[in-house]
Amino acid sequence: DEAAQRYAAAQRTFAEKHNIEIQEAEQNAGMQELNLLNNYHQSIFLKYSKILMRNNEFMQYLNAQQMENISKSRLQLVEDTRETIKVLEAMPAFKEDTEYRDAVAAFVREIQKLAVGDYKDLETILKKAETERTQEDVDTFNSAMQNFQTVIPQINAVVNEKGNELLKKYVPKPRVAKQL
Question: Could you give the CA distance from residue 73 to residue 40 in angstroms, rounded to a whole number?
Answer without folding.
Answer: 28
